[in-house]
Amino acid sequence: MDILKVVSISVVETYGFHIFDQVTTSFRRQVFWTLFIVQYVVLKTYCIWIYPLIASPLRSLPGPNYTQFLLGQTYNQITASCPNSIALAWMKKFPDADLIRYFAPGNHEVVLVNSPRAFREVTFTHAYSFAKPRFFKRLVGDMIGGGLFFAEGDVHRKQKKLLAGPFLNKNVKHLLPVFEQNADELSSSIETLVVDSETGAIEISCLISKSLLDIISQAILGLELDGHSIASELGRCYHTIFSSTTMSRVMLFLNTCVPVRRLLPVKTNREYTDANIEIKQILKKHVQQRTHEIRSLWRERLKSKNKDILTLIIQEQLKKSDEFPEDEIVDHLRTFLAAGKYRMSSILNPIANNEK
C-alpha cells in the first residue's frame, strides 16, 4: 500500500512539473523515478524508525527492549520453547500493565492485552470496535475455520445468538460427568507413570493432549476417542497440526506475512494443509450424519438423548429454519476443537513442568 501511495504522489508531481516546463519524455521518466525513490525512502524511514520510536501514541506503553534489527521480537518467538513462553515472560515482567507493546518485523507495533480489565474491554465491552487483523486470519484461519472467531458485526451477533442456547448453564451441567470421568482417568494414568518411573520425572504432554481431545470429542461431538474411528482420525490430524518444530514455527511466521502454506511445497506445509482439509471433511460428514439422525427422530416425534454441543446446535438451527448451513456448523466445530485443545494444552503443560 505504501508503494501505491508514493506512486500516486509521484505521478501527480511529475505531471505538475510537466505543466510548467516543456520537457522530453525521457526527462519526465527520470523525474518520476527520482521523486519515487526519494519519497519512498523518506516514507519508510519515517514509518520504521521515527513513528514507532518517537511519534507513536503507543510509545508510552511498557514492553520488552528493542532487540534484532528490523525483526523486533520475531526471532525470540520462533526460537522459544513454546509459542506462549515469550508472552508469559513479558506478562510476569509487567504484571500491573493493562497493555504491553512489542515490535514485529519492520518495526510494526503489536499490543498484547495483559490485564483482566483490558481483556474485558476488548472482548466484551467494546468487542465490535476491535476487528481481527488480516494477518491473524492467515495465522490460524486454516486451523479454526471462519466461524464465530472471525465473524464481525451483524454476522457475529447472528452466530452468537445461535450458540447461546447450546451453551446455557443447564446444558453445560449435563457435560460435567464427561469432564470428571476424564479428569479421574488422567490422574490415574499420571499416578501409574510416577510409580513406575525411577526418577519421578514423566512425559505428560501426550497424556494431556489425549485427555483433552477425549473430553472435547465427547462433549462437543458425542464421540469416544478410543472407541470411535472418527475421533481417532481427528486425534491424528490435530497431532500433526500442533507439532511444534523449528520449521513449523518458521512457516507459521512467514504465513503471517505471505500466504505460503499452499505456495511452498515443503513437507511441513503439505502435512499441515492436508490435516486441516481432512478435519473439515471428517466433521462435515459427521454433521450430515447427526443431522439425518435428528431429522429422523423428529419425524417420529422423538427427541435425541444426546446432550453434546453439536446435537444442541443442530436442534437449535432446525427449530429456526429448514435451511441448514453445514459449512457454518463445521467452522464452529473446528473453532471449538482447535481453540479448546490448544488453549488448555498451553495452560496445563506449563503447570505440569513447574516443580512448585
- The CATH topology of the largest domain turns out to be Cytochrome p450
The spatial strand order of the largest sheet comes to: 1-2
SSE sequence, one letter per element: HHHHEEHHHHHHHHHHH
* Stretches with pLDDT under 50, minimum 5 residues: none
Per DSSP, the total helix count is: 15
Overall domain count: 3
Task: Report the major sheet.
Answer: 2 strands, antiparallel
Shape: globular
Rg on CA atoms, Å: 26 Å
CATH architecture of the largest domain: Orthogonal Bundle
**Coarse structural class:** mainly alpha
Which CATH top level class of the largest domain fits? Mainly Alpha
Distance between the termini: 50 Å
Overall pLDDT, averaged?
A: 81
The CATH superfamily of the largest domain bears the name Cytochrome P450
Roughly how much helix do the residues carry, as a percent range? 55-70%
Number of strands: 2
Strand content: under 5%
